[in-house]
Amino acid sequence: GFTYSSDLVCRFGTQESPATYVSETSVLCAAPSHPAGSVPVSLSVNGVDASSVSGSLTFEYVSSAVVESLSPVVGGLAGGTAITVTGSGFSVLSSDTTLCRFGKNAVSAAVLSDTELVCVAPAGDDEGGVTVSVVTGGGDDLSGSLSFLYVETIVVTGVSPSRSSIAGGSTVVL
Hints:
It contains no helices and 14 strands. It has strands spanning about 10, 15-25, 25-30, 35-45, 50, 55-60, 65-70, 75, 80-90, 100, 105-110, 115-120, 130-135, 145-150.
C-alpha cells in the first residue's frame, strides 16, 4: 500500500508529473501532454521507483477528437432533425456516453466512424441560434463554435389541384 509522502512522482515515459496521495491503494497524477502512442508509466516515492505486481504498466495517448462542422444547420423548433457532425478522432469516443449539446439541451450521439457522428436535435426553447458541441463520456466539451438555427416548423396542409396532366406545367398551390 501507499503511504503519504510529499515526494510522489508519476513518470509517463521520460516525462514526470507530481502525484498526490489519495489512499493506501491509489495516488492521483495528471498525464502530461505527449504525442499519440503508448508509454510506460511508473511511480517514484521519495526518489525510489515503486514496483508493479504485473510488471510493466503502460498508458496510451490517443489523438483528441475535433469537431469541424454539422449538417444541416437549420431545423424545426419541435426538434427531430437528424444532424451529422463531422470532424476527426471520433473513434476514441463511445456511442454509449457521447452527447450532442444544443445550447443547454443534451441528446445521445451515435459514433458512425472516425470522422462522423449523428444525433437528433432536441426540441428548441425558442426560435434562433444555439451553440452545438459534442461532450465526451469524460465530460470534455469538444466545442467547435458550431451553430444550429431553430425555426418555426412549416406545416403543409394541402395541395390544390391535387392532380394534373402528365405533360406538367400546371400551377399548384400548397
